[in-house]
Amino acid sequence: MAGRLRTAIILALCLLASLASNAATHEAKQNAWAELSADQKKALAPVAAEWDAMPVVQRSKLLAVAKRYPKMTPQQQERIQARLKEWAELTFQERELARKKYQKLQRLPPEERTKIQKKWQEYQSLSEEQRANLRRKAGATMVEELGVEAAGTAMQPAHAATTPTTE
């Protein structure tokens, strides 16, 4: 009796594992780049080269963005395209750093996030020249604070971009 029960449990577990595996494979194939609609491909074009290698969770978030994309204003669409392009150009390390910064920001109290958002909006309203000056000053300050002798080394990542929002 115990032997039959054990065999039945093992068979049930094998069946469940097989079903879960098939579902994951189906979902991955269903979300493969080749399976996307023309509208989805248009919205997600900047990440086309790496789409099939992305985790299913990330693809799902981006598919949600693609679903909203046709209803967006042209300015919003441009912004999404630019952010996806920037994200696609980031190295793995830069993406990890961006994710960590985003997670850290999300853990801040709402009033702190509001302060940071205000400062970011102020920064965005500056001219490109003013922003470049601030970046240079921030880099020089970091060199002084860290005691780094090689002031000629790059102080910013190759691609200073933010994580695209997919909410």
Q: What is the averaged pLDDT score?
A: 78
Shape category: extended
Largest sheet features: none
**Elements, N to C (H/E):** HHHHHHH
Computed Rg: 23 Å
Number of strands: 0
In DSSP terms (H or I, runs of 4 or more residues), the helix count works out at 7
How would you describe what is shown here?
It is a single chain. With 167 residues, the protein is an all-alpha fold. The chain has a domain of 30 residues. It is 69% helix and 0% strand. It contains 7 helices and no strands. α2 packs across α3. It starts with a helix and ends in a 21-residue tail after the last helix. The C terminus is likely disordered.
Supply the key terms.
disordered C terminus; 167 residues; mainly alpha
Provide a short characterization of the protein structure.
This protein has seven helices and no strands. The chain is an all-alpha fold and about 170 residues long.
Outline the fold blueprint:
Elements (H helix, E strand, L loop, with lengths): L1 H29 L7 H7 L11 H13 L5 H16 L2 H16 L2 H16 L2 H19 L21
Helix pairs in contact: 2-3
